[in-house]
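Look over this record as teaching material.
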Amino acid sequence: MMSEFVICINNDSNPASLIVGKVYRRLPDPEAESHNVLRIVDEDLSGLDGYLYPASMFVPVELPEKAKQVLMAVGS
């Protein structure tokens, strides 16, 4: 099972939507993940259902509980 949070390592195709080095929330989407795509809550917070991006643009990260709480509160 992949982490609930990922770090962007490549934003070449979406520089306005993703920031390299930033932690993003990954939303569960088994169908998308079966196609190597992740559902991410990106810089456009109006898309609270997230947007699909290639999994290769991210790496999973485990965060301390306090950091998770803060990121969940701001919706990113």
